[in-house]
């Protein structure tokens, strides 16, 4: 069961009132910011250059999977909590049932956040961009019949996609809220089209 009492912020933490109060352009956790990008970017670079660096497929595969695993652990357990105040995990209750928990750091009494806008942008850009690159790699391996690489790119999609899904759930709350948000967005787009001046014109 998810925790719905969370801080309601945009994906890139660009709230106008907060940015006016403080620019928050300083990176407060440089080590976390570095490793948030290091493992995932390194996995992509190794995948692109592995055939030039070595002829051993096994060595490349093991290296990429290790980098992806380190990235999954670091982003899930460290960088998300430090950079944007989000975390998600799985817990088993006394009855043996598994529950996924999605949390966001609550706003302090002064109404300020401990994460900076620069860190938030780095976090979300890295979190969203890299899984998209792995999806492109997956289609490329599929259409070029590189079957041996398909398992590697699928691992990249699954591990980085899981973190992306988990942190988006942290932002929007429960699945009900996620569905409601999508429904509200589509409703607003429909109403916007209906209100266009030329929509009701007749021939």
Automatic annotation (TrEMBL):
TM ranges: 30-49, 55-75, 122-143, 149-168
Keywords of this entry: Membrane, Transmembrane, Transmembrane helix
Listed name of the protein: Golgi apparatus membrane protein TVP23 homolog
Database matches in InterPro entries: TVP23-like
PANTHER family named among the record's database cross-references: GOLGI APPARATUS MEMBRANE PROTEIN TVP23, GOLGI APPARATUS MEMBRANE PROTEIN TVP23 HOMOLOG B
Gene Ontology CC annotations of this record: Golgi membrane
GO biological process: protein secretion; vesicle-mediated transport
Subcellular locations according to the entry: Membrane
Membrane topology, from the record: Multi-pass membrane protein
UniProt family annotation: Belongs to the TVP23 family.
């Amino acid at each position: 069961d998810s925790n719905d009492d969370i801080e309601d912020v945009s994906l890139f933490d660009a709230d106008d009132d907060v940015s006016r109060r403080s620019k928050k352009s300083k990176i407060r956790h440089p080590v976390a910011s570095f490793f948030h990008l290091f493992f995932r970017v390194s996995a992509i670079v190794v995948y692109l250059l592995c055939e030039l660096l070595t002829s051993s497929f096994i060595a490349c595969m093991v290296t990429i999977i290790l980098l992806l695993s380190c990235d999954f652990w670091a982003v899930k357990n460290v960088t998300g909590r430090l950079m944007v105040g989000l975390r998600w995990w799985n817990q088993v209750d006394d009855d043996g049932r598994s529950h996924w928990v999605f949390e966001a750091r609550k706003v302090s009494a002064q109404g300020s956040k401990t994460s900076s806008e620069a860190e938030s942008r780095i976090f979300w850009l890295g979190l969203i961009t890299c899984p998209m690159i792995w999806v492109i790699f997956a289609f490329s391996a599929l259409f070029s019949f590189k079957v041996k690489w398909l398992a590697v790119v699928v691992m990249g999609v699954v591990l980085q996609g899981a973190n992306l899904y988990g942190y988006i759930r942290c932002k929007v709350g429960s699945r009900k809220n996620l569905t409601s948000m999508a429904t509200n967005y589509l409703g607003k787009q429909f109403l916007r089209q209906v209100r266009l001046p030329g929509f009701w014109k007749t021939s």
